[in-house]
Design goal:
The structure holds 2 protein chains of 2 kinds.
Chain A (H helix, E strand, L loop, with lengths): L4 H42 L2 H16 L2 H12 L4 H4 L4 H27 L2 H9 L4 H31 L11 H12 L2 H34 L4
Chain B lengths: L1 E10 L2 E11 L4 E5 L6 H8 L7 E6 L2 E4 L5 H10 E4 L11 H12 L4 H14 L15 H14 L4 E5 L7 H16 L4 E4 L3 H7 L2 E6 L2 E7 H6 L4 H11 L2
Parallel strand pairs in B: 3-8, 3-9, 6-7, 7-8
Antiparallel strand pairs in B: 1-2, 1-4, 4-5, 9-10
Helix pairs in contact in B: 3-4, 3-5, 4-5, 5-6
The chains are: A mainly alpha, B alpha/beta.
């Protein structure tokens, strides 16, 4: 079997077209997931009575079950329970919900760990000058914690991009689905999958570059921690 | 005028403070000395509400707080009218020296940014660190950090400054710059409560010295009297040990 470079070249524009779906889904999931994780992390760290228990279970559930099973359960199991919703919710939206929830569990854990790593004295000093707990949290603790959490947060971001490749299973037409389709149409699976792998790699490489850039920038503006 | 009335604090079964009464006049400097683990720091932390005392009362001028059932508002009030200087400095690592000082003014005292900066610069000049205003804490020496921390406390015009072993974490050659600054503040008649192991410093700088052991004040009086001629046997034992280090 001969390797068809031309096929790959022809595939690239199609991949790039569907990469917009991947990128859109990833960006939205990162944004929503990160926002949720923020509140989950603070609630768990602060040990707010009932809520922190609930969110500990939330974290445990989403980290402890496979994403594919979550997607199937939600899309094929839960949504059909609500007939009014079935037509209104697209597979893209369903994928976004599950990706956001699942990734927020991982990110909440990294944030919680990062908050715990900040010396207790920082909170005490902030409170001793009269700041409320939340003021101290948002102005003093979190800016330092985020710097600590950046490497693990970016791992989560990159995982989100990679995990979007699973959502074709519930019918979202994104890059992975396109690769499979195009590969099948010409019996050129190797070329199609190599092509899609390189596009994923390109996207995550850009993110890796962004991470380094942010780390340097935060290093300057946040100062050394401890 | 600050009055501490019958303050009690326990951690679980361990009683750390067993009924402390102390009246502090405006402009008075009081040092608390005594062995480690006798509740000196805890007492300061109770005044600053970083620990909540179990029983007792604190009165600062006309505002009296009943510690038996303290409210959130009381806590904030006490924290906003007292200021703490920690053994470990605890400057805000994510803020420059200048912002460490303006932070409380802007966020807590709701001062305008320009006004806060003006005040912060004045204070930095006073603690001798004007040229470090744009540095981050990580680039300062221990002594410089503690001077900024004192500035941060000072900026809020607290009714009382609480010092929790301000020089214990410093290299020996850096202790002096901090002590000189505190002495300067004493001259300016700032009301201060200082927990310290620097006996000579306590003798020179304070109006009154309290010897504390096992959660109680065993002896107090004019600084030179207590340190030169302690009446309590435990005080004199302690002073002997500290002097012959």
């Amino acid at each position: 079997m001969n390797f068809d470079f031309e096929f790959i070249v022809r595939l690239i524009p199609i991949m790039l077209k569907y990469s917009t779906v991947t990128i859109k889904l990833s960006c939205l999931a990162i944004l929503i997931g990160f926002t949720i994780s923020f509140f989950v992390a603070i609630i768990v760290y602060t040990n707010i009575p009932i809520l922190s228990k609930i969110f500990k279970i939330y974290i445990s559930f989403f980290r402890g079950t496979p994403l594919m099973a979550q997607l199937f359960c939600f899309y094929f199991g839960i949504i059909p329970l609500f007939p009014d919703f079935v037509l209104k919710i697209s597979s893209f939206q369903a994928a976004l919900v599950i990706l956001s929830l699942a990734s927020s569990a991982y990110m909440a854990e990294s944030l919680r760990a990062a908050i715990s790593s900040i010396h207790r004295g920082q909170m005490e000093a902030a409170q001793s000058i009269g700041m409320t707990y939340m003021q101290a949290m948002f102005r003093i603790i979190l800016p330092q914690a985020i710097k600590v959490a950046i490497p693990t947060l970016f791992s989560s971001f990159i995982n989100i991009v990679k995990d979007t490749s699973l959502v074709f299973a519930i019918g979202v037409k994104e890059m992975m689905a396109t690769a499979q389709l195009e590969g099948a149409s010409g019996y050129r699976y190797l070329e199609a999958y190599i092509c899609v792998l390189f596009v994923y790699w390109a996207i995550t490489s850009v993110m890796g570059y962004a991470q380094k850039h942010i780390e340097v920038k935060l290093g300057k503006s946040v100062g050394e921690i401890n | 005028m600050i009055k501490l009335k019958n303050i009690h604090k326990a951690f679980g079964n361990l009683e750390v403070i067993k009924g402390i009464d102390l009246d502090i006049s405006n402009g008075e400097v009081i040092s608390i000395i005594g062995p480690s683990g006798t509740g000196k720091s805890t007492l300061l932390r109770c005044i600053n509400c970083l620990e909540v005392a179990d029983r007792g009362g604190i009165q600062i001028e006309d505002f009296a707080v009943n510690l038996d059932n303290i409210t959130k508002h009381d806590k904030l009030w006490l924290r906003r009218n007292t200021a703490m200087v920690f053994q470990g400095f605890y400057l805000f690592n994510n803020k420059t020296v200048l912002k460490n000082i303006t932070e409380g003014l802007i966020v807590v005292k709701k001062m305008k940014k320009s006004e806060a900066e003006k005040k912060a610069l004045k204070i930095l000049k006073q603690v001798g660190l004007l040229e470090k205003k744009d540095s981050y804490p990580s680039s300062l020496s221990g002594g410089q950090k503690q001077r900024v921390a004192i500035g941060r406390a000072l900026a809020l015009d607290p009714k009382i400054l609480l010092f929790d072993e301000p020089t214990s974490a410093l290299d020996p050659e850096l202790v002096n710059e901090v002590l000189v600054l505190i002495k300067e503040l004493a001259k300016q008649k700032k009301t201060m409560l200082i927990v310290t192991h620097e006996i000579n410093f306590a003798r020179n700088v304070s109006d009154r010295v309290c010897f504390m052991e096992q959660g109680m004040i065993l002896e107090q009086g004019p600084a030179k009297e207590v340190i030169d001629n302690p009446k309590n046997e435990r005080t004199s034992q302690f002073l002997n040990v500290v002097r012959h280090r």
